[in-house]
Design brief:
Number of helices: 5
Shape: globular
Length: 121
């Protein structure tokens, strides 16, 4: 993903890439975490899951969420507002639903989803 993030910029999951690129060039962006009102967490979840063939929530948690959560909790500003100022974007409706083990984070963080209800639920 790091080598070529734009390979994920196709289809519905491309929303994650385009939103992230938009924020990188936004006039309101700050690089000082103490000044930030919100933090966007770019994980390209749908693309990574598809590329690596994660078929279960456990695979996604072990390969994506555990790393993301460890990284976030190592940063002092991650918990200053109980994650209420952190934004996660999911490019398909099933992505946020599949991470059942992180109910605490999900209840506090801001979740943007391309689909509010996936027809396969």
């Amino acid at each position: 993903l790091i080598r070529s993030p734009l390979r994920c910029a196709v289809g519905q999951w491309g929303t994650e890439v385009f939103f992230h690129r938009f924020l990188l060039s936004a006039e309101c962006r700050t690089k000082d975490p103490e000044e930030a009102d919100f933090f966007f967490v770019p994980i390209y979840n749908t693309c990574v899951g598809r590329d690596h063939g994660f078929n279960t929530a456990e695979e996604g948690e072990a390969n994506v969420w555990d790393f993301v959560m460890d990284l976030l909790h190592s940063m002092p500003w991650a918990t200053r507002r109980s994650m209420r100022d952190h934004i996660f974007l999911f490019a398909d409706g099933t992505s946020a639903r599949s991470w059942e083990a992180y109910n605490l984070i999900r209840s506090e963080a801001i979740f943007f989803m391309v689909e509010a209800k996936c027809p396969t639920w």
